[in-house]
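Late entry, written up from scratch paper. The run itself happened at the end of the previous shift, but nothing got recorded in the book at the time, so transcribing now.
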Amino acid sequence: MTVRAPTRQPNPRRTRLSVAHVPDSRLMRLLMPPALEAFHTLHSPIYLTYASAHLSTLAAQRAVQTAFGLIAMHWPFVVGCPRPAAVAWSQLVASTGSRGCPLPLTAGCPLQYDAAVLHTRGHDVTAIADATGHDASKIRYLLTRQPA
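Output as recorded:
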């Protein structure tokens, strides 16, 4: 009989995942389940675009690495959420600190700001929707809507 230690479930009300220790990216690649590796492959370029808009090249790379480290550490929780990409996106935003020092863009809400940052850097509505975890129709609406 195998006895397993009880596992502590993450609190679903928290938007930021805890930072105990973010693994090195090389180690992370060795430990990634295939779904996380695919998620990383699909989203890391657009995450880097967003981070680079707010940070220097090296700091942007570190922010993306930190975000994916947190996502990897809490992968079962992330994929158990209704919108895993939205949870992952919130980690990137937190890792970049973009809410504290935004670019001079007019936006009525954080998602509209994020969509505008990515759109001005050449990403289309579908790519932005996939990365942020929201419907393309919502992103399209936010990009055409003038903030009040």
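Residues 33-144 form one domain.
(Scratch paper discarded after transcription.)
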